Amino acid sequence: MTEPTPLLVPRGFRFSSAGAGIKASGNPDLALILAAPETSAAALFTRNRVVAAPVEVGRASLASTRGRVRAVLVNSGNANCATGSRGIKACRATCAEAAKLLRLSTNQVFPSSTGIIGVPLPEGQIISRLPSLIASCGSTTDYMRGFAEAILTTDSRPKLFSASVSSGAASITGIAKGAGMIHPQLATMLVYLLTDVAASSSELRKALGHACDDTFHTISIDGDTSTNDTVLLLASGASGIKLRSLDDEFQTALDEVCRSLAQQIVADGEGVQHVIRLSVKSARNRTEALQVARTVAHSLLVKTAWAGADPNWGRILAAIGRSGVALDPRRISILIGDQTVCRGAVACDFDARRAHQELSKPESRVEVRLRRGKSAVEFLTTDLTTEYVRINADYST
Amino acid sequence: MTEPTPLLVPRGFRFSSAGAGIKASGNPDLALILAAPETSAAALFTRNRVVAAPVEVGRASLASTRGRVRAVLVNSGNANCATGSRGIKACRATCAEAAKLLRLSTNQVFPSSTGIIGVPLPEGQIISRLPSLIASCGSTTDYMRGFAEAILTTDSRPKLFSASVSSGAASITGIAKGAGMIHPQLATMLVYLLTDVAASSSELRKALGHACDDTFHTISIDGDTSTNDTVLLLASGASGIKLRSLDDEFQTALDEVCRSLAQQIVADGEGVQHVIRLSVKSARNRTEALQVARTVAHSLLVKTAWAGADPNWGRILAAIGRSGVALDPRRISILIGDQTVCRGAVACDFDARRAHQELSKPESRVEVRLRRGKSAVEFLTTDLTTEYVRINADYST
């Protein structure tokens, strides 16, 4: 992430966006990706037991086509969640209508929704906009940006990132929204990763799992998991370059795209003033490193201290202690920036003003050393501000 | 909890309080309970792996005396946590000095500390105040209130509750502080339960475990667990009434005292505007009922919605879904007050204004039904307000 790569449109994809009147603001809320015939796909979904209709339908479609996707139909402004069997029917109806117009089978149209929970999806409004949505597809960066804009909810800006592979002969572009978890109800992380490399669905699944582990799985704004979270990877094959000919290069590029999108999502979190790059080092294994990182990242006392750029390591230490890991407090060290502020669970003599300055930066570094083993994880999280509470406590009915 | 029971001082206890200059405010910060020779004790401590010096010392003393306590020495304003071996020495030194003055052994003096983390305990200030502290003991309610005042940190009021047993022949009084988890670093729940019933240490341990399960173990303000949490039950035997002659009456009274103190602690939480009585019903067992209750009670989206008295059941449903319990969303119902707002994970037709009114009350009821079994738990929790963030984000160095 030295200089920003210019946006690239991988071959084999076209984009479109429109307003279907789902958002009260009148902003675009319907978006489409059309993919070339040979496109293969892999996806990861929310681990929440409560899942929205499009997650159920999309998961079933991917299984029945064995990872074939020809179109992605996204609406924002309505999550189609907690809508029961009626929500499933509405989701299928929009996919079926798009499939009919595109001469595809219904299960080749992959659906996503994000927005308010518990309100019936206005399927009629979506279906009536489909002909013009399909008619206005294009493959320039402007069309792609239009797609990225139309999937937003309370995000303040679209999130895109590109990487080129094989000396520019192929590319990967990621488009994301979320995840502030949002007024009026609950937002969602939606991520679409597009490449013109040729790959099987199983190759994509493997690459996607790896890329998500150190990116979307290690970020947290407020600890809430949406009912709609979806990460979809599509490979059109239009570059003619086979994934397996690229060795690690594809994985490295995909990781880079995901890392940038994850960072953009966290930085755009609701009310966020400070992003914290939290490293947990010398853990016995990745699981316990993650457990410590999540407990610290979700502690209200830690997050509010970060809002005040307060180098209050006692709160971090207390959160580590209740993480459930059977650790020995006397081996714990905590660093803020490059200063050790606590060693062996005892205060160090440190420059509090310099630690305050580190935490005042838009992105600062906090490191926890457990001295139990060789595992480490880097977690991206945020402070908790009065603005976050204000946004989410606003009762508007 | 119909009409408030007047405060009772169980026989066999005397109280004292003083200012030792630990708190910058100059408020009383040193407190003492003296207990009759036959007093037996049981205690529960924080489950945090990072524990303060007094927790380590107090636990060891109780083990070595097999549950005999003659004095309780508490300071507020300094947690004596993250102070290493020096902190242990300081704690032992204050207990040893009190023991010398009282002609006891050091391990009969039970220590507690609450306040800032990572700052050495000013043991000299404490030790020099001990003679006058001991000299000014008394057994009236005023002395007891003085004790309750001196153990506070950012609490806005002292917390006491009494219950009589055996038609007034004996009594139980509880005194508590906390648990706002507090500026400048971290506060603590300290609870002292005193009775003049005669009981063995093992009888007390059993009664205490039972009483805590449905009271102090089922409350949450911000989900952080202090390094100093302590609940101590002392039985002086001075009434001459044996616990085992009382059947369930002692347990019922102890439960009532703990329930009131837990409620007082939650209602006095930092920035709290609304207390929520969250019931999780028809769970398969207590563990999963607690898991669902804790996930809902700790969700930032749920807590901020409660701050706005927003009947946003979608956030509650999403939190239940990510609780880790292998539940079927289609069986979940959610009630706000007496209205069902969601049934089978689908929106119900309900009066949103009436639900908003319920959530606007100082204490309101939210109920989750899982339809998996017969277990239930009642959890007491709070909203999350901008005031909470303001208090905890205030950087003062």
Q: Shape of chain A, please?
A: globular
How large is the share of residues in beta strands of chain A? 15-25%
Output mean pLDDT of chain A: 91
Query: How many helix segments of chain A?
Result: 11
> What name is given to the CATH topology of the largest domain in chain A?
L-amino peptidase D-ALA esterase/amidase
- Structure class of chain A: alpha+beta
Q: What's the architecture of the largest domain in chain A, going by CATH?
A: 4-Layer Sandwich
Q: Largest beta sheet of chain A, briefly?
A: 7 strands, mixed
CATH class of the largest domain in chain A: Alpha Beta
- In terms of quaternary structure, the protein is homodimer
Task: Describe the model.
- The structure is a homodimer of 397-residue chains.
- The first copy, chain A, is of the alpha+beta class and 397 residues long.
- The first copy, chain A, folds into two domains: 13-267, L-amino peptidase D-ALA esterase/amidase; 275-393, Ubiquitin-like (UB roll).
- Chain A is built from eleven helices and 16 strands.
- In chain A, the strands form three sheets. In chain A, strands 9-16-11-15-12-13-14 form a seven-stranded mixed beta sheet. Chain A has a five-stranded mixed beta sheet with strand order 3-10-8-7-6, with helices on both faces.
- In chain A, strand 6 (159-165) and strand 7 (170-177) form a beta hairpin.
- In chain A, helix 1 (53-65) packs across helix 2 (84-102), helix 2 runs parallel beside helix 3 and helix 5 crosses helix 6.
- The longest helix of chain A is centred in the middle third of the chain and has 20 residues, at 248-267.
- The radius of gyration of chain A is 22 Å and the shape is globular.
- Chains A and B meet through helix 8, helix 9, strand 14 and helix 11 of A and helix 8, helix 9, strand 14, helix 10 and helix 11 of B.
